């Protein structure tokens, strides 16, 4: 079918509306894929099933089909060896089985009473699923909950007993008056799935147990008493056992359902057919629809047909094709309902061919069309350079070329959009061809010649939309066999057009004369206006070119921003690589404590190499994009310079180019002489602006993140050591941008000499620089060395926006621990720090969070 025409006549809107009456997801998806059918047997079968559903619902019976979630995707899970359905998926199967049994019972009970022969035949195709039903509902309830099976009850009792025991232990602590000054709260709280007590940090030794968490203020610690620890551990084991038992039950159920796969495949299409046909029946009842009879060899007939989207506003119309007449020409006034009549006939025909009921009276008969074409409305297309008339001709040409004896063609306002004489000539030739091909054609027109054509041609029949002469308004009824008048003057006068104009128009019609001289004067005026339009077009073209240049510059700016974002993402990947290296190093240390094999060592090395190679590959890709973007920016700047040079070529002949010395003299002459110092500063600034910037020691640079620093020295080709305040870093030259220094020339010489320098790491040749670590190990260091290492870590974290890390200093005699605590307490960038929980190192490890 022609999908464009189906969309124009609102077929898909009605199909979506009918699909909303489906109760299952699979039935709705199936109905949304339905297109008008071409085989009468399939159409009549669908309509007859819907008819029987209408009889069933009219008898006051409730819908026997209950909704179910999609079950077809579950077949692959059931079929796979070792796979297991989830509890939710088992519930889906339970819903489907319930719906199958419900419809079998309902149709079997009322089939004889209501003569539901076709529904009974379809129910007979449903397989026996009793065994599958027993298996499913032995495990779950109708609501989808897991039943209390013997193997589950015992474990749940043990879980309940352990929970009660834990509550008793907790109650013993909270009700003990001796501990009232120790506890922050008398109500236990949950931390990490365990019940704990909120204990004052200074008195935590009063309640021996495991510390699970420390408050942000470090005033409260959450302790799980030793008496509750064993119970909690046992509780976790029992809950794990429960989940294992449930998983085993579901796995056994899934394996037992494998023989039922053919039954599910057999039942599913029958159930979706039931859902689709009952949806059509319920929609038809809500719209007071009937089922069209097959036309056979008789002409089409629509009785009291209503457009379903107009609702109560729809005026019923009759459309009668007579024997041997296959072209219907509808005339009449504007807004009289001519186009609606075309759409109503086509839409109801397509709904009928989809097996749906239609909003029409009993006795309506419709043929089966192999295709439908339409030229409705104004399809003017600017992007395809199609005028109104061209778009009409394109649609009509497609319809004529595809026309057959069983094709339905709708032509709205045939012959419009061009010279009336030529338009009517084309219209009559088109109708001659369509009559020769014996197609069904519905035409609307205002052309008087076509009205005469319909009157004289034996294959055509005229019709008109009724017009009330008293009220001067259409009644929207369709009168068969009678051509109609446009009543343009009557409608114009009622719409507010002055009476004098209407009288003049009637005079023109009576005399059939027109003022040709006025047309010539109009053409002269149009010629003058054309010159103005051409000048305006040139101005607009210049503005468009300027806008294009600005858009191109904006595009380059956005590409630069995108490149910076990618570099930031690569930075995150580098951090991830370092983190992964730390994790793998920890893994290697763990392996050393146990059995070390060559395979394990090789796998760790291979993992590190792959991560490093991925990061380097992405680095190279970003560098290539950076180079391409730089070339495009230079090309754009060159184009802009050439355009500017071309635009000012005449002016440059009269101008003299200034030398650097003259420019310096001009710059210094414009300095405001408020003082000697300010004048000197102005001269220096002007001179500095004329000196080209270059990468050299002492030059001021800025990173992509906006941080400004000073070049110290070039460590190797393309890599510079840059000073940022008290920190020096080695960065690539391509990541730096030269900026004009605002200070004096010798300011860098007096700069603060840093005592911390961040150099290239051992693997700097691969493009990886020193970065902060997730876990700083200070074990075995002297206090001074440890503080310097910690200070270095904090600087790196601030530089790389690294907000969290941990410090391993051990307990020992407490010297390192105290030194770390003293430094963190007075460091201005540290937001907070706290001891690690017992299971992660306890007092020998400190968590640090930066501002």
TrEMBL record:
Basic residues bias (residue ranges): 643-656
Pfam assignment, any one: MutS_V
GO biological process, one term: rescue of stalled ribosome
Record function comment: Acts as a ribosome collision sensor, splitting the ribosome into its 2 subunits. Detects stalled/collided 70S ribosomes which it binds and splits by an ATP-hydrolysis driven conformational change. Acts upstream of the ribosome quality control system (RQC), a ribosome-associated complex that mediates the extraction of incompletely synthesized nascent chains from stalled ribosomes and their subsequent degradation. Probably generates substrates for RQC.
Keyword Lipid biosynthesis applies: no
Molecular-function GO terms, alphabetical: ATP binding; ATP hydrolysis activity; ATP-dependent DNA damage sensor activity; endonuclease activity; mismatched DNA binding; ribosomal large subunit binding; rRNA binding
PANTHER family to which the protein is assigned, alphabetical: OS10G0509000 PROTEIN (PTHR48466:SF2), OS10G0509000 PROTEIN-RELATED (PTHR48466)
Gene behind the chain: mutS2
EC number(s) from the headed UniProt entry: 3.1.-.-, 3.6.4.-
InterPro entries per UniProt: DNA_mismatch_repair_MutS_C (IPR000432), DNA_mismatch_repair_MutS_sf (IPR036187), MSSS (IPR046893), MutS (IPR045076), MutS2 (IPR005747), P-loop_NTPase (IPR027417), Smr_dom (IPR002625), Smr_dom_sf (IPR036063)
Region (Disordered): 630-656
PROSITE patterns: DNA_MISMATCH_REPAIR_2 (PS00486), SMR (PS50828)
Family label: Belongs to the DNA mismatch repair MutS family. MutS2 subfamily.
Entry binding sites for ATP: 332-339
Protein name: Endonuclease MutS2
Enzyme class: hydrolase
SUPFAM superfamilies: DNA repair protein MutS, domain III, P-loop containing nucleoside triphosphate hydrolases, SMR domain-like
Chain ranges of the Smr domain: 778-851
Keywords: ATP-binding, Coiled coil, DNA-binding, Endonuclease, Hydrolase, Nuclease, Nucleotide-binding, RNA-binding, rRNA-binding
Coiled coil: 520-571
Keyword rRNA-binding: yes
Superkingdom in the source lineage: Bacteria
Subunit structure: Homodimer. Binds to stalled ribosomes, contacting rRNA.
